[in-house]
Amino acid sequence: MEIKVSVNIDERFLHGLQEVLRIIDLIDQSNDSEDVIIFQRNVFITPLFILPLLVYIHGSKKRISFKYSNSYLDTIRFGTGGLKTEEVQPEKLNGIMEMCSHNTYIPIISFPTNMDSSKKRNEILSTIEKIILNQVKAKTNICIALKYLIGEIVDNIIEHSDSERGYIFSQAYPKKEYLDICIADNGISLLGSYIKLNDNMFNDHLSAMKAANSGYSTKNLPNAENRGYGIATSKKMLVDGLSGNFVMLSGNALFLKSKSVDQYSELPKVATWKGTIVAMRIPYVCASFNYINFVQ
């Protein structure tokens, strides 16, 4: 089956995720041996669209290919499955990332989650943070928040996902003064992480989602390694402090948070995501923001 991506994904934050779920639904309904995703010319692409789509394609048991003539997709390394950090020498990786300093994006980064590579992963994360900060030219108060938000979500993937790989992609919009960043895995989901740590309080994705976003973190369970403040603090810093937007999808549970929206939704089973997606829209001009107000 051929699936055409022709919708012009605009600045509405959720529009990209809605398009991904539409594509997944069509693929699940298809009985063809191979499905082909066709990108129409001039389709506007956002992190919350392209990263979940890539992770889904690489985690699917079906044969899925794609066709496109959009050079941006090559630039961000969509066609190759992202920049796999362990396949690139540190000097070359730093050079690739440095080339992005004067652009508004970083390429899709695919990194191993095993703890044996933690030193290299931390170096990569520091490089990513440095490049993004150079791109947006944010003041110190925002720089601290950006580093915290990125580091905290990546740590959550490493600790609980049981995914072999994590993915990160960002795009800044200088005229609008915000940054869109998406971090994803195709692991065991929030519910799976609670079950793995012998926490049997939850039996569905929605209840696990509500617990994680209410401060009941897997990091605080007896068998977990506590390395940060958790999702609840990140969300509060982003939304209350910076007036940003927060989206989380895990299993078939979706959570949206902004100044005007605080909503949990249970999606149809067909839309169940194998793993967890976190996306943030981060305004990077906010003189009144103070990081200290949000650290517990």
By DSSP, the count of extended strands is 11
Q: What fraction of residues sit in β-strands?
A: 15-25%
Helix proportion: 25-40%
> From N to C, what is the helix and strand string?
EHEHEHEHEHHEEHHHEEEE
Distance between the termini: 51 Å
**Coarse shape:** globular
Strand order of the largest sheet: 4-5-6-7-11-8-9-10
Uncertain runs with pLDDT below 50, 5 residues or more? 221-229
Work out the radius of gyration: 18 Å
Describe the structure.
With 296 residues, the protein is of the alpha/beta class. The protein has helices at residues 15-29, 47-59, 71-75, 90-98, 118-136, 140-160, 189-196, 205-213, 231-242; strands spanning 2-5, 34-39, 63-67, 83-84, 105-112, 165-173, 178-185, 245-251, 253-257, 262-266, 273-283. An 8-stranded mixed sheet has the order 4-5-6-7-11-8-9-10, sandwiched between helices. A 3-stranded parallel sheet has the order 1-2-3, with helices on one face. A hairpin with a 4-residue loop joins strand 6 (165-173) and strand 7 (178-185). Helix 1 runs parallel beside helix 2 (47-59), helix 6 runs antiparallel to helix 9 (231-242) and helix 7 packs across helix 8 (205-213).
Question: What attributes characterize this protein structure?
Answer:
38% helix, 11 strands, globular, 3-stranded parallel β-sheet, 296 residues, 9 helices, alpha/beta, 8-stranded mixed β-sheet
